Amino acid sequence: MSQAPAIDIPPADPHAERPPTGPAVLAGHVTALRLFDLAYAIDLGQAEFLWAQQARQGTRSKFTSTPPKAVDFGDPPLGLVLPSMTLVLQEDGRAITVDVLVAARLYAFGVVTLALQVPAEGLSWAGFTKRVNAVDNAVGTQAGTDVWHGLLDALRQPIEAALTRPNRSELVEDYLVATVHLFAENVLASSLGREIDLVPLLSGEDLKLADAARADLLRRRFSYYIDDLVVLTWDRAFIYEPRRETDVADVIEVANAQFLQMRYYDELLDAELPRMYDLVEEATRRLSLGPRRFAGLARRLYTLVAEVTELTEKVDNALQVTEDVYLARVYAAALDLFRVKAVSSAVDRKLAIIRDTYAALYDEAASSRAGLMEGAVVVLILVEIVLALFGRH
Predict the structure, then answer these.
(1) Mean pLDDT by 10 residues, the chain (393 residues)
(2) Could you tell me whether strands 25-37 and 172-183 are parallel, antiparallel, or unpaired per DSSP bridges?
(3) What's residue 95's pLDDT?
(4) What is the pLDDT of residue 50?
(5) Which residues partner with 41 through β-bridges?
(6) Is there a single domain that holds both residue 162 and residue 73?
(7) Reduced to 3 states, what is the DSSP secondary structure of residue 148?
(8) Is 86 part of any domain?
(9) pLDDT score, position 371
(10) What is the pLDDT of residue 15?
């Protein structure tokens, strides 16, 4: 039997685009979020008044579909509308210009969210995925663009008077939300992520991921109706919402804002603890001023603990979801994914160290004060004895 000639099969190109799967997206958008720590606190009522003086629109946030009794904003954030802008995106090696809606949201605990909403309509599923990645490349963490700081400066100036102890912290958070409202055909939530591949959109990767990585990426998925879906990842989310409700996107943003603020206080306390140890050592070495050397430092630590505790409580109570079980599950998953509880626990541990140090310093100051009083009593007794002895002569 003659042997069939060998056929050379070229190896598959790992960078080659896989055949597009999934229906076309008729209505949707991509929202890029960047969150900044703007100040120690923001007076939202005053900020709303100052913004209105500029003849601009601002409203206190509320959920679009969830009943008010089912959720509770500790202090509802203030939503502000900024002038729209254009953005240049790179898709398939060509530059396209899109009109972008710009908005901001202020939180009482000092965080501001800037949001760029990029339209994504009339695109194939592969085209929609490319639009998501193009937005990330244009304004994401690695983009190196000044668009965010320009928007932040334009926002900060009119509301400056409403900021309590404004800061210029470089700590930021970025998040990307891809939202579809309408497909070209009826789509069930069960098919998204299975028949329709969400992984390239959620990962931003062109190469095929391992099965374990794919499963982990799709692990946090939630649906309430058969035709809605939210999938959460560390830096991106996909939302399929045919009723155009925004509640899920809102709770994801709140969780990001809480994470940013907890990170800020965690880093603040990281910097404060070594400084505190140095000050305690210095105060212990000093032989002058008696209890004052401890009392002054104790007051400073008490003030720090009081301020951080007050603000962290506001962060923790920024949103309470009570009766909406679905929204509560999404919110809890976002808090867990963003490690809000873990960072909050780290802040609590560092506050406990400072409280213990404050208590020790207070006790030391009290002991020093008592020692001085005892010394003074002894001196007075000696003076009386000396006077009595000399009085006899």
Answers:
(1) 38 42 89 95 93 76 61 80 93 92 94 96 94 94 81 92 89 95 90 84 90 91 93 96 92 94 87 74 55 62 77 76 83 92 86 74 57 62 68 58
(2) antiparallel
(3) 93
(4) 92
(5) 164
(6) yes
(7) helix
(8) yes
(9) 54
(10) 41
Strand, helix or coil for residue 375: helix
Structure-block tokens of residue 383:
């003076």
Task: Rounding to the nearest 10 degrees, give the CA dihedral for residues 47, 49, 52, 58.
Answer: 50
Residues 91 and 205 in one domain: yes
Residues 6+ apart with CB under 8 A from 130: 91, 92
Question: Hey, what are 193's tokens?
Answer: 């992520």
**Contact (CB, 8 A) for 126 and 91:** no
Residue 111 lies in a domain: yes
Q: Within this chain, do residues 235 and 262 fall inside the same structural domain, yes or no? A: no
| 127 and 58 housed in the same domain | yes
Provide the pairing of β-strand 163-166 with 94-106: unpaired
Both tokens assigned to 4: 């069939």
- The span from the CA of 331 to the CA of 338, in Å, is 11
Domain total in the chain: 2
Asked if residue 97 lies in contact with residue 80, where contact means CB atoms within 8 angstroms, the answer is: no
Examine residue 20 and state whether it is found in any structural domain, yes or no: no
Q: What is the span of the domain harbouring residue 109?
A: 25-245
Same-domain check for residues 133 and 277: no
